[in-house]
Amino acid sequence: MSAQRDMKEKNPWHTPVTIIFSVIGVIAIVALVTVAVLQNRPLPQKYKYGIVLDAGSSHTALYIYEWPAEKDNNTGRVEQTLSCKVDGPGISSYASAPWKAGKSLTKCLEQARQKVPVKRHSETPLYLGATAGMRLLNLEDSSASTKVFQAVEEALQKFPFSFQGARILSGQEEGAFGWVTVNYLDDRLEQNLQTRGALDLGGASTQISFVSDNFDGSDSPDNAVAFRLYGNDYNLYTHSFLCYGKDQALRKTLAQQTKSGPGTILDPCFHPGYTETKNYSVLYDSPCVSDRKPQGAPATFNHTGKGNFSRCQEVVKRIFNFTECKYSQCSFNEVFQPRLQGPFGAFSAYYFVMNFLNLTDTSIPLEVVTERLSRYCATPWNQVKEQHPGVKLKYLAEYCFSGTYIVTLLTKGYNFTSENYPNIKFIKKIKGSDAGWTLGYMLNLTNMIPAEAPDSPPLPYAGYVSIVTVIALLLFVLFIFSLRPLWPRCSKHPQII
Ligand SMILES: O=P(O)(O)OP(=O)(O)OP(=O)(O)OC[C@H]1O[C@@H](n2cnc3c(O)ncnc32)[C@H](O)[C@@H]1O
């Protein structure tokens, strides 16, 4: 008893001090862990939005993009969150009743109004970019094109978004922004990987854009676009062929066959058994063919299918000029084109048509592609209609021509061969976003792709908090050990001093 009393008397404050330090330490740990957990708990994601209207020659489509609101320098990933196809034709078709062009857009804009949270409406930029249809209308009748834009702007300004204007994109912009879209979505720009060329087939124009080692723009400055993206320089080759979209190319091919204004044309690009009465003035109502309108032709002609792929290819080839080239190498129509390089993504009508024909797999050799097309073109029209009851008749009637045109454009026009044809990938979407110029256009106008690679902290935030917590714990344990001399002795045999 007296020994125990001795011990208590020697260290009267040992136990309370240790308890106080321990309590403080435990509180410190709990506080640290709470801070780390609170900092890292998933917050409800907030988004920003951007809207782009693609006013194409055949139709208009609205796309909404979203990206995380809290990212600095707009470095968050941009994704398509809604697409809306406007009913009716492209805005250039409303030249005689411009107000209808504006009205046609309202349904999709209403959808956008529902989709974008109300508190983001006023800060959401809204762009309209028009492509080859409006380029042609502007060439043909610039005052009609101005009126269509006025009507469209009036309609768009009625919505609560931040309207940034409606304009015609140049062919060069259309090609370059299509290339940016494809490579952004594939993460090839940020990661500095080999880029993918872009092949876009619209209704009125077609674009080819790619990076080639032997192109620095000096041969043909009009085809050069220089970009600095994420700290890397790109010298892009791009060309847009106006009147070589699939609808205008079809007009050109028909115009080739109706030069002398016959009453009937036997067209190898349409199925046997197909026959329609068509109007000459409708066929030649486009600047792509208007100068070739036959004199003294009847009002209508009989368009009759013969279904012959190789003869169709002969007719299609005649719409290209391969004879003249003032450069070291050309694609067609005296347009410079450097050596094809790298993988390619082919979208829009390239995809629609090749997907219908079951030919999106480019490991199918080109000879097999042409064999299949020959068989398809030779299929009687009635049989084709029976086999595809749900497909729009206009598209269905034209797939033989469209497939032949695509193969001819790629191989004879751009010089793809059996060796590099497999480098092409027919694509519609990449990671949920449509391939096309709209995303690249918005990224550019909102400065979403920095010229320099953003400086990133050496550690991600969660890693930083975890390391701080572990170090704090270690320090605390060391601290407790440093108090060892003050620890109460827990011996079964009390020491008597
Ligand atoms: O770029 P521009 O030349 O202005 O044309 P666009 O913007 O209207 O062109 P799209 O990419 O929307 O469409 C390209 C073409 O594909 C056609 N098209 C769309 N859907 C199709 C489908 O399912 N099958 C076949 N063709 C289709 C459409 O009519 C056009 O002729």
Automatic annotation (TrEMBL):
GO terms for molecular function: apyrase activity; ATP binding; GDP phosphatase activity; ribonucleoside triphosphate phosphatase activity; UDP phosphatase activity. It is found in: Membrane, Caveola; Membrane. Its cofactor is Ca(2+); Mg(2+). One of its GO terms (cellular component) is caveola. The chain crosses the membrane at residues 12-38, 461-483. It holds the Pfam family GDA1_CD39. InterPro entries: GDA1_CD39_NTPase. The active site is at 174 (proton acceptor). It is a multi-pass membrane protein. The keyword ATP-binding applies. Belongs to the GDA1/CD39 NTPase family. Homodimer; disulfide-linked. Catalyzes the hydrolysis of both di- and triphosphate nucleotides (NDPs and NTPs) and hydrolyze NTPs to nucleotide monophosphates (NMPs) in two distinct successive phosphate-releasing steps, with NDPs as intermediates and participates in the regulation of extracellular levels of nucleotides. By hydrolyzing proinflammatory ATP and platelet-activating ADP to AMP, it blocks platelet aggregation and supports blood flow. This is Ectonucleoside triphosphate diphosphohydrolase 1. It comes from Pleuronectes platessa (European plaice).
